[in-house]
Hints:
Helix content is 6%, strand content 26%. By secondary structure, the protein is mainly β. The chain has a two-stranded antiparallel ribbon. Strands 3-4 form a two-stranded antiparallel ribbon. Strand 3 and strand 4 form a beta hairpin.
Amino acid sequence: MAARQxxxxxxxxxxxxxxxxxxxxxxxxxRFPESVREVFIRREGESVVLTPRPSxxxxxxxxxxxxxxxxxxxxxxxxxxxxxF
Length: 85
């Protein structure tokens, strides 16, 4: 008698369309909390990664994240633009 294999070892989501917008129905275990209203989106190779957009940046500004010493070293300093108002 053949052993029964798991039907779907990896969770999946359905991809569909709503007018001209592509939609993804995320399984309950992967859904964002109701407080999340927007997400950042980026590509990593063929993957699309969604990250909650913070509604409060306090934790970011109080973190110890710092730019490296060589941040923007090679950027050109543009001349001040003369403007008339």
